[in-house]
Amino acid sequence: MSYFRSTGLCSRWFSFSRDGFHATSIEDVIAATGMSSSAVYRYFGSKEEIIRASAEIGVARVREIFVALLDHQPCPTPAETLTLLVDELHRRTDHPDYDMTRIALQTWAEALRDPVLHDHARTAYLDALDHVSRLVACWRDAGFLGPDADTDAVAVTVFSLMHGLIVIHHLVDDVPADQLLAGVTLLGDAVADPRARAASARPLAH
């Protein structure tokens, strides 16, 4: 994807972020690049190819958030990790011209329509989940989790939180880090409470 930066084609994100994949015409994309149509078509055969490439980069940017967490030394605590997730989300949504999380959000919908993009996005997310699993393994080794903790379950939960934060950012409001930490803590306590487990085993009243 380095050709996006070398050719200036990354400017197409501005239009996609603002108007979405399908409301943005190929003419809009070409105008945003400042290049001729022949130059754009040298890299892409159609608007569909541009959408796929843009969507894949949007997914990759979300993946980078989790990869970056592994670079922190020493290993961040679970609480520090959640705070870093919120900070990273804010950093990526505060750009004055485009918001890469909007591209990611549109990609999830587009992947339901486009099987090629679906397969590419699935591969990228499985890779991201693998990075989260490595982070959770660090927590276990550092003693934040028990030695027999189900690290896969924890990894899926952390991974899901990030995507939930993106959705609520765009549709409701930002979740402050302290509120997220408080909510996760309270929910964890409730799930771990034997009384809560007993209540969950009872059939719901109709």
Care to describe what's here?
- The protein has 206 residues and is an all-alpha fold.
- The chain has a domain of 128 residues: Tetracycline Repressor, domain 2, CATH 1.10.357.10.
- Helix content is 76%, strand content 0%.
- It contains eleven helices and no strands.
- It is elongated, with a radius of gyration of 20 Å.
- The protein starts with a helix and ends in a 5-residue tail after the last helix.
Quick overview:
By secondary structure, the chain is an all-alpha fold. It has eleven helices and no strands.
List keywords for this structure.
single chain, 206 residues, mainly alpha, Tetracycline Repressor, domain 2, elongated, disordered N terminus
Series of H and E elements = HHHHHHHHHHH
CATH class of the domain at 48-175: Mainly Alpha
Percent of residues in β-strands: under 5%
Average residue-wise pLDDT: 79
How would you name the CATH homologous superfamily of the domain at 48-175?
A: Tetracycline Repressor, domain 2
Q: Please count the helical segments.
A: 11
According to DSSP, the number of beta strands is: 0
| CATH topology name of the domain at 48-175 | Tetracycline Repressor, domain 2
What is the end-to-end distance? 54 Å
User: What summary fits the major beta sheet?
Assistant: none
Name the shape in a single word: elongated
Structural class based on helices, strands and sheet pairing: mainly alpha
What are the low-pLDDT stretches, counting only 5+ consecutive residues below 50? 1-9
What Rg do the Cα atoms give?
A: 20 Å
| Share in helix | over 70%
Instruction: Specify the CATH architecture of the domain at 48-175.
Output: Orthogonal Bundle
Q: What oligomerization state is this entry in?
A: single chain
